[in-house]
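FW: tagging you since you asked about this chain on Friday. Here's the raw sequence from the shared folder, copied in full. Didn't touch anything.
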Amino acid sequence: MILESIKTVLNNDISLIGTNGKNPVLIIGVVHGDEPQGEFLIRNYLETHSEIPNNILFIPALNPDGLELNTRTNANGIDINRNFPTDNWEKSSGTDDSGELNRYFGGESPNSEIETQFVINVIEKYEPSLIITLHTPFKVVNFDGPAKEIAEKIGQIFSYPTEESIGYPTPGSFGTWAGIERNIPILTIEMDEEIPQEDLITPFNEMIEILS
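HL: got it, structure written out here
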């Protein structure tokens, strides 16, 4: 069932799907619009399972406008994963040195975007015990907060290594806001973008099984 839903700048829906379980696992797809695998896996799971575990909540596509435009950023040209109100948030240039739009632009101010506001409101209302975001392409399970043990279990399912650092600065990131500053276990599963999406169904569904 849809528990929460809002409209985006381009009139797309961002929806929270599941049942209102206590301290659920929250699984989020399509933070970046050019990474569609997360929505595919979540939608496939919902379509092939008659019941959703009562401790799992899904946001199939946090950035449906970016998905429609095939851009990392949302419709406002902002990287949602740099727009969270972290202690290390900083305003960056909207363009890079060549004058091209900066794919990592975090906005004029933190928490300025409807997508960011939606997921923050969900976390504050439902108080998830674990959050998983689905990304590509690095083939690694990155974790923030107290999530090393579950990260290693899920890394084994996907046959990916586990890393605490993604290897470069991420001011205003979701992992920093929720995992480091709020001590919520956060996993960022960086999946293989070079294989068919269908090849990710089995490990994704196995992950749901061990979490439910």
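FW: The first strand starts at residue 2 and ends at 7.
HL: agreed, and The chain is about 30% helix and 20% strand.
FW: great, closing this out.
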